[in-house]
Amino acid sequence: GDLEAGWAAFEHRWRKKSNAGKRPELPFPEWRGEPLQGRSILVFAEQGLGDIVQFSRYLPLLQDRGADVGFLVSNRVHKILGASFPGIRFFNDVQQVHTTSFDFSCAMMSLPLHFKTRLDSIPGDVPYLKSSQERVAHWRSRIGEQGFKVGICWQGNPFVAIDAGRSFPLEAFAPLAAIPGVRFISLQKNEGVEQLKQCPFAIETLVTPPMDPAE
After folding, report:
1. What is the β-pairing status of strands 89-91 and 104-107?
2. pTM for the full model?
3. In what order do the strands lie in the sheet with 204-205?
4. What secondary structure, in 3-state letters, does 167-192 show?
5. Tens digit of pLDDT for each residue in 85-129?
6. Alpha-carbon torsion, ordered 173, 179, 185, 187, to 10 deg
7. Is 39 helix (H, G, I), strand (E, B) or coil?
8. Over the stretch 56-81, which tens digit does the pLDDT of each residue have?
9. Among 3, 38, 57, 205, which is 20 to 30 Å from 190 by CA?
10. DSSP notation for 64-123
């Protein structure tokens, strides 16, 4: 529970050999909590998509301090983050960043340190992610309103060490699938989809074409 000491210790991640090269070369000074009113800051994503989902909640806090915020992050999440956090500029690669200028830069997962996050001050304005009304209407029509709908994934990226502690067989959902009224809908992509062929319970798949090729 000692988050303040924990965030400070977490800065040592940049000393790990496995993180070498993961920090983009940026010409802007590192933000360490300075006033942001009327200034600009570029946040850059690090680690996986799950961490981006978790820590993107800090972006509005920068806006609340009066900052013009940019976010260097994979374009795979630009649409969902753009709908969730209006006014933020999104960049897909460092080359795009060099066409503009910022007063500061900051690693996404260093934001809790500089906001002095404690157990009682974790940003809790949830849900903080949303989709466009058009997409909501599209998938509501596709999925329907009936039943208790549960989207599930069971397999992460098998080529990273952390996956050993987070993936599990699809069949492990069987007891929950037996609950009356539950609809399981597969959100699995890439590795793990082959388990659908031997799934011991009813599960739906989203097989219609996406709204656009980037989805």
Report:
1. unpaired
2. 0.81
3. 148-152, 182-186, 204-205
4. CCCHHHHHHHHCCCCEEEEECCCCCC
5. 999 999 998 888 888 899 999 999 999 999 999 999 999 889 999
6. -30
7. coil
8. 999 999 999 999 999 999 999 999 99
9. 57
10. HTT-EEEEE--GGGHHHHHHHSTT-EEESSHHHHTTS--SEEEEGGGHHHHTT--GGGS-
pLDDT of residue 212: 53
Look up tokens 């009113």; give the residue.
Answer: 37
- CA 122-64-47 angle, to 5 degrees, is 50
Q: Are 44 and 107 in contact (CB under 8 A)?
A: yes
Bridge partner list, 44: 72, 107
User: In the structure encoding, which two tokens stand for residue 160, read together?
Assistant: 């990273």
Cα torsion through 101, 103, 106, 111, rounded to 10: -130
How deeply is 201 buried, as exposed, middle or buried, from its count of CB atoms within 10 A (0-12, 13-18, 19+)?
Answer: middle
